């Protein structure tokens, strides 16, 4: 009995067969690695979550799947000094302090955002707080420096202090230390900053030449920590440098499509998971994605960075106190979800204006309708005179002390 001879496969078919097998194996590997990476990042992030329980605030709505939140939100970002995890490489302190306190408000229509920096030496009332490490209950205080809040009750106490003082319900909060700043900056490939002159500050370890330079690693941290080498040597000048840095970071993320680069996104996620302590309301990946999607389309010129208005504290020249009238104007706008702008001479303390960056490019196929109504000057956001800050589209340079 004769069997039919099987056709001899051609070299091309043989190669294609193994290419298909290799592609299938690669696809399975990528899916497996991605699933592991997402699970790993999620577990790391969730394990550090802190309940900032605010019984008077409405709980945040569940995040939509891969979509922006509906409505606005408030997020508190805290930078700690002398976090136990940072070791002794940045010096030893008696206690952990919340030295950077930034409140982000995004409007309900997702068209505007305000970023308020609170000086660490701002003397304000603080509520009763419980130390999460020891269980010690710290009584309420009528007048205490803001950066004492972390020692009184960690992230929850810091959020409760700012929420109670401003009247803003804080749904989300996140804290990071020195190492977090370094890793997050490295994850985006560095951030460009500008100086009007050379800075050589032995206190912070900052040594930079005049002009523009991209900083990352220890240089980025030194730039953000530097106080004596910029402006008048105060914490307000340091806030000016931080606003310049954050504005530049936001411009880079939007101009270079960082959020569409899977390598950078994963690097940011890993850096965040390993170095950020979130509130429990922020611990899920859906929450993080939704917040990012809510922010991504806001015009840079409508993201306003502002310093909380202060004056010298009556009992201590090294501390500051609120300027009530100006602070009321600021938070009346925020609480009413109304946009505002700053005056032309509002450059942050210790900074100089360098003109406005190029605006966000409009889609090439976008054109105003033929029957579009003329611009209504009455709809132009109100200018709040006396506030210090900048918008994210403006480029500023740090002025050496």
TrEMBL record:
- Where in this protein does the record put region Disordered? 342-401
Q: Name one Pfam family in it.
A: LytR_cpsA_psr
Membrane-crossing ranges are 12-38
Compositionally skewed regions (Low complexity) per UniProt: 363-381
Q: InterPro entries, alphabetically?
A: LytR/CpsA/Psr_CW_biosynth, LytR_CpsA_psr
Please list the residue ranges annotated as the Cell envelope-related transcriptional attenuator domain. 98-254
Q: Does the keyword Lyase apply?
A: no
List UniProt keywords, sorted A-Z: Membrane, Transmembrane, Transmembrane helix
- Superkingdom as given in the UniProt entry: Bacteria
Transmembrane among the record's keywords? Answer: yes
What is the similarity comment for this entry? Belongs to the LytR/CpsA/Psr (LCP) family.
The name this protein goes by in its record: LCP family protein required for cell wall assembly
């Amino acid at each position: 009995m004769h069997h039919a001879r099987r056709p001899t496969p051609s070299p091309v078919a043989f190669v294609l067969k193994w290419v298909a097998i290799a592609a299938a194996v690669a696809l399975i590997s990528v899916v497996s690695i991605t699933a592991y990476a997402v699970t790993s990042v999620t577990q790391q992030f969730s394990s550090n979550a802190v309940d900032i329980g605010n019984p008077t605030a409405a709980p945040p709505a569940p995040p939509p799947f891969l979509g922006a939140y509906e409505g606005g939100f408030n997020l508190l970002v805290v930078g700690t000094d002398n976090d136990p995890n940072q070791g002794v490489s940045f010096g030893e302190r008696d206690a952990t302090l919340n030295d950077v306190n930034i409140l982000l408000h995004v409007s309900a229509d997702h068209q505007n955002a305000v970023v308020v920096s609170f000086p660490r030496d701002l003397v304000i009332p603080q509520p009763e707080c419980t130390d999460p490490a020891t269980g010690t209950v710290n009584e309420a205080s009528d007048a205490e420096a803001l950066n004492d809040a972390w020692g009184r009750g960690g992230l929850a106490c810091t959020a409760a202090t700012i929420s109670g003082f401003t009247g803003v319900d804080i749904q989300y909060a996140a804290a990071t230390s020195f190492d977090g700043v370094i890793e997050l900056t490295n994850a985006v490939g560095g951030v460009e900053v500008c100086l009007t002159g050379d800075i050589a500050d032995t206190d912070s370890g900052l040594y930079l030449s005049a002009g523009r330079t991209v900083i990352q690693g220890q240089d980025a941290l030194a730039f953000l920590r530097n106080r004596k080498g910029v402006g008048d040597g105060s914490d307000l000048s340091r806030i000016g440098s931080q606003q310049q840095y954050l504005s530049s970071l936001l411009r880079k993320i939007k101009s270079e499509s960082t959020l569409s680069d899977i390598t950078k996104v994963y690097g940011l996620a890993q850096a965040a998971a390993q170095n950020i302590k979130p509130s429990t309301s922020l611990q899920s990946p859906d929450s993080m994605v939704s917040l990012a999607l809510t922010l991504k389309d806001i015009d840079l010129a409508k993201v306003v960075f502002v310093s909380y208005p202060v004056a010298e504290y009556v009992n201590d020249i090294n501390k500051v106190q609120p300027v009530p009238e100006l602070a009321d104007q600021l938070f009346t706008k925020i609480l009413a979800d109304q946009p505002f702008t700053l005056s032309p001479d509002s450059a942050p303390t210790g900074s100089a204006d360098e003109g406005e960056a190029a605006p966000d490019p409009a889609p090439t196929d976008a054109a105003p309708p033929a029957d579009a109504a003329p611009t209504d000057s009455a709809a132009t956001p109100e200018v709040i005179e006396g506030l210090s800050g900048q918008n994210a589209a403006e480029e500023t340079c740090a002025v050496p002390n």
